[in-house]
Specification:
The complex is a heterodimer of chains A (299) and B (306). Chain A has 299 residues and is mainly alpha-helical. Chain A contains 16 helices and no strands. Chain A starts with 19 loop residues before the first helix and ends in a 5-residue tail after the last helix. The chains are: A mainly alpha (299), B mainly alpha (306).
């Protein structure tokens, strides 16, 4: 295959499950060995998460015990969570993350879908140029624009504002190309029939094309959301006011006054991690498929 | 999002050419919102950044005069810039290799279809969904010399003596690399897994008839069929690793003594603690040139092969 990324639409091939017999043959030993290796990998990959989870349910004294004891001396407690939820900026930061990520996702997916449809279906002056420019833009990493985007936000008076976080994150050229490839593969007949019946372009787009595109829109939206939710560098640079910080910036920069408290830090990390992990468990199939067929992701 | 750069250039025009109905004025409704956002928040900053790199613009508001190539000349003679670039390249090498190899091994194991598929996917991919700040907080705690998991594991293995996971200049970058592999390998794993699942069954069945065992089939069918995917994953990984900032900044702030400072951190420090926007913009342009160079090398190699 040429590239797992950016193939149009969600191909059914990816979801196919091969039988173990095809891959491993009838050998029992092979199964045992592979299973053992898988279990080892799972344990190694889960251990850091479990370690953090464990720490978050301990008293600060137990968490800091040396040498390390797996089970707490003074029992499990949700004290750290209570403290974080009642006496830290965490609730505010989570809300800010939800608000910015939702608005970024809506705006990005909205403008990208419209532009992608135009590139795929409409003939207008400069279409080819626009497409070439968008493809070339994919190569520009966001980090390269850090300084001038900050200067621009400074000029707009948007440093330390909600829109200062949001606006520079809404342009995602790769989304346009992914969606354009998807539209290219959708048969045009349905749309033509509606056009003959006198429906306008926008009407056709809204009532025929969008419903057909739900899976790809969902994939693009979820990755835009994850990217925005987890973004650190830009919100970190543009926001100083703790009341406006997103979750990653708050966790990364705000230290409490009593020195490092690991139970609390871990409780904070668990709360920060939970929303996306829940999203993943709920939408595992779509996310795995989305990555497989579009190859797009955060970072 | 820039992680997805390659595929577009790697596989242009795979889809059918778009039909070309008569020119329509209604196109404006579709293109203007994107063009507006693109012009304001992408194109203009790109142009303005290039201009800034030729000025002595300062965050304090002073400066801004044209100074030619002075920022570039200074960057190329600044040992700190070279050290940051060296750190970045070192990090890229020591993360790309395991991030490709471990992902491949995981995918080969999971693709055998043994029971428990969702557990494997969840365990390997879940860390990828964590914010860098969450990952950094977790691993900063794991790397604590007293009370941390890393030291406890090493002590359990019989290694005595304190290891300065994040404070020893010879060790810190490796610690960050381990964290990074743990954090992001799931993405490459899923790309590999999808690629393996598109290899036709009949290849395996034919090989089995010829008496090839599981290892032999992996070596002679799966791995060759994955070579293009590997090329793509390597490129995406190199580009992603070159942009490293978050986990380093959050775990060591580039220390000890600049030993883990990356290029993006150099840009950040120069602009936002040194206030020298012009110089930071210049280094951004140099960094961009490096990214383009890596992408071009890959594109040239692919077109020669194809």
């Amino acid at each position: 295959m040429t590239a797992p990324a950016l193939s149009p639409g969600l191909s059914p091939v990816v979801d196919r499950r091969r039988t173990t017999a095809t891959m491993l043959g009838p050998s029992r030993t092979a199964r045992v060995v592979v299973l053992a290796l898988l279990i080892v990998f799972c344990l190694v990959w889960l251990a850091p998460l479990l370690w953090g989870l464990r720490t978050s349910f301990m008293t600060e004294d137990d968490a800091a015990t040396v040498p390390v004891q797996i089970l707490p001396e003074h029992g499990w407690t949700t004290e750290a969570y209570a403290t974080i939820l009642s006496a830290s900026g965490m609730p505010t930061w989570l809300w800010n993350s939800v608000a910015t990520a939702v608005v970024i996702t809506l705006l990005t997916v909205g403008i990208s879908t419209l532009a992608a449809y135009a590139l795929s279906r409409l003939d207008f002056r400069g279409r080819r140029t626009l497409q070439a420019v968008i493809i070339a833009s994919i190569l520009v990493p966001g980090q390269v624009l850090l300084v001038p985007q900050f200067q621009e936000m400074l000029a707009f008076g948007m440093v330390d504002t909600f829109w200062g976080i949001v606006l520079p994150q809404i342009v995602a050229p790769v989304n346009v190309i992914i969606l354009k490839r998807f539209f290219d593969a959708v048969p045009i007949e349905l749309e033509e029939a509606a056009r003959i019946d006198g429906a306008s372009r926008m009407r056709v787009f809204l009532s025929i094309v969008l419903p057909l595109s739900r899976p790809i829109l969902f994939a693009v939206a979820i990755f835009t959301f994850v990217t925005a939710w987890n973004n650190f560098l830009w919100p970190f640079v543009i926001i100083n006011d703790p009341a406006l910080m997103t979750m990653p910036v708050g966790i990364g920069t705000v230290r409490n006054a009593y020195g490092v408290q690991y139970a609390q830090t871990m409780a904070q990390a668990v709360i920060g991690a939970a929303p996306l992990l829940v999203v993943f468990v709920l939408f595992q199939r779509q996310i795995v498929k989305g990555i497989a067929t579009t190859g797009l992701g955060g970072q | 999002m820039t992680r997805t750069a390659a595929p577009v250039t790697a596989a242009p025009a795979t889809s059918a050419p778009a039909p070309t109905p008569p020119r329509v004025r209604s196109a404006a409704w579709f293109t203007v919102p994107f063009l507006l956002a693109y012009g304001l928040f992408f194109a203009w900053p790109a142009v303005y950044g290039l201009w800034t790199s030729f000025t002595d613009a300062n965050l304090t508001g002073h400066g801004g005069a044209f100074i030619g190539f002075a920022n570039y000349a200074e960057a190329f003679t600044d040992p700190d810039m070279w050290s940051a670039l060296g750190n970045t390249l070192f990090f890229t090498v020591i993360t790309t290799v395991p991030l490709v190899v471990v992902a491949l091994i995981m995918a080969l194991l999971v693709a055998t279809g043994l029971p428990g598929q969702w557990i494997y996917r969840l365990s390997f991919f879940a860390p990828y969904l964590l914010a860098s700040a969450v990952v950094a907080a977790l691993w900063f705690w794991i790397y604590q010399p007293s009370g941390g998991l890393a030291t406890a594991v090493f002590t359990g293995l019989g290694v005595t003596g304190e290891i300065g996971w994040l404070t020893d200049a010879d060790v810190a970058m490796w610690s960050i690399a381990i964290t990074t592999v743990w954090w992001t390998v799931g993405f490459n794993f899923l790309l590999y897994l999808a690629a393996i699942q598109t290899i036709p069954d009949h290849l395996y069945e034919a090989a089995a008839l010829d008496g090839a065992g599981a290892l032999r089939r992996t070596w002679s069918i799966t791995l060759p069929m994955l070579s293009r995917t590997t090329g793509l994953i390597v490129l995406l990984q190199v580009l992603a690793s070159l942009k490293v900032f978050d986990q380093i900044y959050l775990m060591t702030s580039g220390g000890p003594d600049g030993a883990t400072r990356s290029t993006i951190e150099y840009v950040y420090d120069t602009a936002f603690t040194g206030y020298r926007l012009g110089h930071a913009a210049g280094v951004s342009v140099i960094f961009f040139a490096l990214i383009i160079l890596v992408s071009l090398v890959r594109t040239l190699r692919t077109s020669r092969e194809g």
